[in-house]
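Design job #97: recover the sequence.
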């Protein structure tokens, strides 16, 4: 007679108990998972909303109208503004006040330069020897002296200070200037093909003035900004004035309260120094 296994009553009761325990465990695990998911959703939603939604229509409008909202459209300028500091990233630091010594040939002047970010570019004023700011520049009006178009050496002075500037590399896009990367990892010509060269190499970006601008255009319709590939900061700017090449070289970079700025600028023509600006104080504050 073939052998058959017949479960006993005790075996049946034990099987039922195991099944009930397993079912209870599955129910508990499902409830725990549902509770954890609901807790995460409840606590994460306000954070996301607070991060993405302005607290009021007024704040939203102010953010859209602030120049910094448009300074991230040009990739090279966006990269540079983040390198330079908070004055291009947040409200309340739109004005830079620079104090130092301006040298023109054998003449020396104390200089107070105020740079104000504006909706369409920048407004700059220059006061010499503690006097009133009689020299100015803006993207709209160009270089002015006592409210009239500056000419000759005064025009050159104002345009050099205004445009040969790391700040203008960022702000020029607001007036419609065009950016073009000319070359990357460029060495100076005197380095040649030497394998022992250990000096700076640059990414060169050309900024051209708007082609449709007919009045108050700078003397140089373009500028070549040399960005140090190692530091990310601008080493020099090359431009043209009345057929002559002008080179502005930056040095003495400092980090003051999260703001990067050069403390010395030297302008040369045919390897001769024609102008120098040495800064002793730099301050940043809200728009004036």
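Job complete. Output follows.
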């Amino acid at each position: 007679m073939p052998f058959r296994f017949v479960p006993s009553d005790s075996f049946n009761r034990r099987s039922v108990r195991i099944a009930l325990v397993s079912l209870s465990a599955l129910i508990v695990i499902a409830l725990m998972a549902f509770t954890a998911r609901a807790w995460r959703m409840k606590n994460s939603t306000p954070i996301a909303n607070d991060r993405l939604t302005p607290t009021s229509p007024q704040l939203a409008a102010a953010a859209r109208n602030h120049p910094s909202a448009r300074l991230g459209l040009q990739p090279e300028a966006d990269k540079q503004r983040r390198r330079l500091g908070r004055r291009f990233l947040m409200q309340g630091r739109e004005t830079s006040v620079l104090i130092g010594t301006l040298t023109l040939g054998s003449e020396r002047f104390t200089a107070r330069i105020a740079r104000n970010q504006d909706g369409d570019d920048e407004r700059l004023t220059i006061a010499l020897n503690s006097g009133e700011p009689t020299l100015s520049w803006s993207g709209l009006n160009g270089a002015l002296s006592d409210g009239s178009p500056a000419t000759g050496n005064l025009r050159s002075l104002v345009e050099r200070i205004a445009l040969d500037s790391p700040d203008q590399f960022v702000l020029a896009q607001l007036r419609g200037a065009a950016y073009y990367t000319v070359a990357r990892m460029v060495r100076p010509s005197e380095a040649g093909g030497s394998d022992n060269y250990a000096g700076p190499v640059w990414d060169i970006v050309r900024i051209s003035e708007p082609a449709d601008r007919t009045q108050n255009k700078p003397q140089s319709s373009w500028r070549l900004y040399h960005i140090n590939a190692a530091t990310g900061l601008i080493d020099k700017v090359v431009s043209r004035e009345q057929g002559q090449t002008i080179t502005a070289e930056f040095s003495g970079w400092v980090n003051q309260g999260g703001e990067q700025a050069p403390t010395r600028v030297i302008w040369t023509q045919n390897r001769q120094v024609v102008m120098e600006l040495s800064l002793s104080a730099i301050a940043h504050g809200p728009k004036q």
